[in-house]
UniProtKB/TrEMBL annotation, chain A:
It comes from Stieleria marina. Belongs to the cytochrome c oxidase subunit 3 family. The gene is ctaE. Residues 39-402 form the Heme-copper oxidase subunit III family profile domain. Residues 227-262 are annotated as: Disordered. InterPro entries: Cyt_c/ubiquinol_Oxase_su3 (IPR024791), Cyt_c_oxidase-like_su3 (IPR000298), Cyt_c_oxidase_su3-like_sf (IPR035973), Cyt_c_oxidase_su3_a-hlx (IPR013833). Pfam families: COX3. It is found in: Membrane. This is Cytochrome c oxidase subunit 3. It is an enzyme of class 1 (oxidoreductase). It is a multi-pass membrane protein. The chain crosses the membrane at residues 40-63, 113-132, 163-184, 334-362, 382-401. PANTHER family: CYTOCHROME C OXIDASE SUBUNIT III (PTHR11403), NITRIC OXIDE REDUCTASE SUBUNIT E (PTHR11403:SF6). Keywords: Membrane, Oxidoreductase, Transmembrane, Transmembrane helix.
UniProtKB/TrEMBL annotation, chain B:
PROSITE patterns: COX1, COX1_CUB. This is Cytochrome c oxidase subunit 1. Keywords: Electron transport, Heme, Iron, Membrane, Metal-binding, Oxidoreductase, Respiratory chain, Transmembrane, Transmembrane helix, Transport. The lineage of its organism: Bacteria, Pseudomonadati, Planctomycetota, Planctomycetia, Pirellulales. Its main location: membrane. One of its GO terms (biological process) is respiratory electron transport chain.
């Protein structure tokens, strides 16, 4: 009896509306209704996200269909190792995120904070690796069509701004900020601030772990792998790799030639099938096959070097005397445009994810979540899985198409 | 029917008037209580003010266009730059009307006010997101102003490449504005879908929802599914201008027709974002003012959804002459015709509702009837444009301009004004002058037809759209059109002043001035800030049998027949065992 009374007394303390727990917004009747609304809301939001990226996937499909050889050729400039490691990092972050949702449901507050911090650290590592990839390509002039300035004979531009430093700058500032926050809260002995600042410092420093990882893989990949992998960027690799530089250049050209000749070979091997296809294509209704044959003929002409003037009616090739080499701004440039748009918008989503995850982390330290109220963790989790999923599509579409 | 008097002995239910502290307009004071309000009704009112300002601005630009076209060489803008100024004026007219007025007009302004009240909920599902949508709308509007004050904009509201990537005008500011407005629209749509799905009180089943809610739901589906594609398209356009990514720009091997496909994949469904809520408003208006159950409730409800889904399949009909294969054009043309079926179902049902109804020719009903006239003309002329053979002739002529103004102005704007007149007593608790309301409707109807009927003739005779100058043979029709536009302007001004006048000198509005049966008429005028004290009992939204006219107090009341109650059996004092 007495226990009951104190309980109800406690309830009356914070609200006259004893049915309304503090986390329940005034316009909802029950926690279930609130959770269902949020869940439906986030799913709808994810639908809009998919359509948003859908536009870019569509652009990718159109341009790859129009110029498959450009996509295959340019894909060689992307470092598969870095892409793969980022895929692994993001998959792992999805695991920790799902685990975080579970922890919020079981009210394991410490573990929840840890899982959120792990997810955040993975996001930061992803961005660190991405920073290496981007700065490296910018340095070589592998840029969107309007800015494309790659020169196969001189892949390394002399001088130029230190892109990596510029990308890292905000993260350096953030890291310094969190460390300062940690130090100040340690001095003041504010427990809540310490509990927030500690994991966030780890998170901020993870970015540099990503940068280090990227640097290591980028230089390690030079012997065996793609063209782009061959360049150890002088800016971040400094002394250690200076010796490799000369060697790298040779490696580049070899790889280039290889890329070209392999395309030619492919065309040759197919020449047997070509006759059959031509026969089939003589049927007027078979327009798809006709295009295919035309493309193959063009491709083999190109490969054998006999190609001089473009006589096809492809609207994009109106300037006939342009050299047919895919490493031009209007060809490779478009590939890199799509590459930067897709990965860039994806990176923006990672940044947005980081922002909401930090908010969750602070709330988890405050122990806001319980078995009745874990909606925000769940919603952010769904968002994070989507961002992860989009990368799962981007990786093969951009990196693994040779 | 409601025309009768109250049966004797019947119980009357009327919520009365709100007290000062209950009224959502006055329950909290100060400008901050409006800026940070989470009340959907206040946000709706703020939207109403915002879209009205945008409409007035874009309407003045329209008048400038029409005045310029008074003479074949241009009457309004003079000097060397005249044609450029003309381009900028029609671009801003189109962009502001579409992005700042029509798209948010009914869904955001009326929808925000009505959706939770009609549904019987306390608020929308995400009140903060709702406020956020409003401020995104404001920010988008600021970007448009920046474009105006900067180097203007002369691409047309469609931002077609390659012109938009080469012109010197402020394309980036305007596209950024449209991008942000897109998010505002997405969030509003998302909010309504979730609200309608999860916030319905007990008894409010899907088929007890007023048709306005069905229309809003269909609109929201489009907003959520189509707008992100516009978002990414505009983002790519901005990237194209700043970095020349070569996706749309032919100079870098891009494909400008791809832009058109992307753009119309959004903007055709967007046409239905504009017209579907108008269908919802008209369904309610026709039924309430005919005092008769809506005819074919389920058909109207499903046809809204059908239009929303079919709307995604027809975008190619904007591009018949843009270089698609002949097979594609035939498919798009055929799909376009399918959209006319659900639209025709609606018109048929509205007419069938009015048939043998007891029609009150109030101001909202006058607007609703002119909507049916104008929308039917607009819809039928759409068939000429969906037909390949005629479209090749009519494409990019004044016929197109006249067609979509019949749908967007004659349809959406007229329904919007009708809706505002219908729910004005509910929103502000004031009755306006019926005389001036009806007068405004008459002037708007005449002015509108005088403006745009001649444009059908102009277009079919070959007058191309967007031209600043024209052959002298077209002058008489252009002059008619310009006078019509001025008359239309007068009509809209009369409507505006009728409403504003009522705010101060209007009679106090009863809870149910028209005899509606939907839930918003069950709360006071204006509603209390909490909408309903407890979840309301939900009946049929179009059952008018128990709504009676109370001639003493000039109001409609809902009545309950006298009931003989069986006297409670007194429980015995002593338990039976």
């Amino acid at each position: 009896m007495a226990g009951e009374e104190t309980n109800s007394g406690g309830d009356h303390d914070h609200d006259h509306d004893h049915d309304h727990p503090p986390f329940l917004a005034h316009h909802f009747d029950t926690p279930e209704q609130q959770f269902d609304s949020g869940k439906l809301g986030i799913w709808l939001f994810l639908v809009t996200e998919i359509l948003f990226f859908g536009g870019m996937f569509c652009a990718y499909a159109i341009f790859r269909m129009l110029r498959p050889e450009v996509f295959e050729g340019c894909s060689q400039f992307l470092n598969t190792k870095l892409g793969a490691i980022n895929t692994g990092v993001l998959l792992f972050s999805s695991l920790t995120m799902a685990w975080a949702v579970r922890c919020s449901q079981t009210e394991e507050h410490k573990k929840l904070t840890g899982m959120l911090a792990a997810t955040l650290s993975c996001a930061m590592i992803f961005l660190g690796v991405k920073a290496i990839e981007y700065s490296h390509k910018w340095h070589m002039g592998l840029l969107p069509a309007g800015l494309f300035s790659y020169d196969p004979n001189h892949p390394h531009h002399e001088g130029g701004p230190n892109y990596l430093l510029w990308i890292c700058m905000p993260f350096i500032l953030i890291a310094i900020g969190t460390i300062l926050w940690l130090v100040i809260s340690l001095i003041r002995g504010n427990k809540f601030h310490i509990a927030c600042a500690k994991p966030l410092t780890v998170v901020a420093l993870s970015f540099f772990a990503g940068v280090g990882l990227g640097t290591y893989l980028e230089s390690g990949g030079s012997e065996s792998h793609a063209v782009a992998g061959a360049h150890a960027d002088g800016d971040h690799a400094s002394g250690e790799h200076a010796g490799d530089d000369a060697h790298d250049h040779d490696g580049d050209h070899a790889d280039h030639d290889h890329a070209h000749s392999s395309a030619a070979q492919l065309a040759m091997e197919d020449s047997g099938d070509l006759d059959v296809l031509e026969h089939l294509a003589s049927d007027a209704t078979n327009t798809g096959l006709k295009d295919d044959v035309a493309a193959r003929v063009r491709q083999s002409e190109e490969a054998s070097g006999s190609f001089a003037y473009n006589t096809s009616d492809d609207a994009a090739n109106t300037i006939n005397d342009v050299e047919r080499e895919f490493l031009t701004p209007s060809r490779a440039g478009v590939f890199f445009s799509i590459y930067y748009c897709m990965t860039g918008v994806h990176a923006i989503h990672i940044l947005a994810g980081i922002a909401v995850l930090v908010w969750l982390l602070i709330r988890s330290v405050r122990q806001d979540f319980n078995r009745q109220y874990f909606g925000p963790v769940d919603y952010v989790g769904l968002y994070w899985h989507l961002v992860d999923l989009i990368w799962i599509y981007l990786f093969p579409l951009l990196y693994l198409i040779r | 029917m409601s025309a009768g008097s109250i049966p004797s002995g019947a119980q009357i239910r009327d919520p009365g008037y709100p007290t000062h502290s209950e009224n959502y307009l006055t329950n909290s004071k100060g400008i901050m209580s409006w800026i940070f309000t989470l009340d959907h009704k206040r946000i709706g009112v703020m939207y109403l003010i915002g879209v009205t300002c945008a409409f007035a601005f874009a309407g003045l630009l329209a008048l400038a266009i029409r005045l310029h076209l008074l003479s074949p060489d241009g009457a309004m803008f003079k000097g060397e730059n005249a044609n450029n100024i003309y381009n900028q004026v029609f671009t801003l007219h189109g962009a502001v009307m579409v992005f700042l007025f029509i798209i948010p007009s009914i869904p955001a302004a009326l929808g925000n006010f009505l959706v939770p009240v009609m549904l019987g909920a306390k608020d929308v599902a995400f009140p903060r997101l709702n406020l956020c949508s409003f401020y995104l709308w404001m920010i988008g509007a600021v970007f448009f102003l920046m474009a105006l004050l900067g180097s203007q904009l002369d691409t047309g509201w469609t931002f077609y490449t390659p012109y938009s990537t080469t012109t010197d005008t402020s394309v980036i500011a305007a596209t950024m504005g449209a991008f942000i407005l897109g998010f505002s629209s997405i969030f509003t749509g998302l909010n309504f879908i979730v609200t309608i799905n999860t916030m319905r009180p007990p008894g409010m089943t899907w088929f007890r929802m007023p048709l306005f809610l069905w229309a809003t739901y269909a609109t929201s589906i489009i907003q959520v599914l189509a707008t992100p594609v516009l978002g990414i398209t505009l983002l790519l356009l901005i990237a194209e201008r700043t970095m020349h990514i070569g996706i749309f720009d032919p100079e870098y091997n891009g494909d400008p027709v791809t832009f058109q496909h992307f753009f119309w994949f959004y903007s055709h469904p967007a046409v239905y974002i504009m017209i579907l809520p108008a269908f919802g408003v008209i369904s309610d208006l026709i039924s309430v003012h005919s005092h008769k159950r809506i005819f074919g409730y389920r058909f109207i409800a499903y046809s809204s959804i059908a239009i929303a889904l079919l709307g995604f399949l027809v975008w190619g009909h904007h591009m018949f002459t843009a270089g698609m294969s002949s097979l594609t054009t035939i498919i798009f043309s055929a799909l376009t015709f399918t959209v006319s079926v659900p639209s025709a179902i609606k018109v048929f049902n509205w007419l069938a509702t009015m048939y043998k109804g007891s029609i009150s020719l109030t101001t909202p009903m006058c607007y609703a009837i002119s909507f049916i006239f104008l929308f039917t003309i607009g819809g039928l002329t759409g068939l000429h444009l969906g037909t390949l053979a005629t479209d090749l002739h009519l494409h990019d002529t004044y016929f197109v301009v006249a067609h979509f103004h019949y749908v967007m102005v004659g349809g959406t704007l007229v329904a919007f004004i009708g809706g505002v007149f219908h729910w004005w007593p509910k929103m502000f608790g004031k009755m306006y002058s019926e005389l001036f309301g009806r007068l405004s409707c008459l002037i708007v109807f005449l002015g509108f037809n005088l403006t745009f009927l001649p444009q059908f003739v102009l277009g079919s005779r070959g007058m191309p759209r967007r031209y600043a100058t024209y052959d002298p043979e077209f002058q008489s029709l252009h002059v008619m059109s310009t006078y019509g536009a001025l008359l239309l302007g007068v009509g809209l001004t009369v409507a505006l002043f009728t409403l504003l006048y009522s705010l101060i000198w209007g009679k106090r509005a009863p809870a149910n001035p028209w005899g509606g049966a939907t839930l918003e008429w069950h709360c006071t005028s204006p509603p209390p800030f909490y909408n309903f004290e407890r979840a309301p009992s939900v009946g049929d939204p179009y059952e008018f049998g128990n709504v009676e006219w109370d001639s003493e107090d000039e109001r409609y009341v809902s009545t309950e027949p006298e009931r003989k109650l069986v006297p409670d059996e007194q429980p015995s004092e002593v338990p039976a065992h």
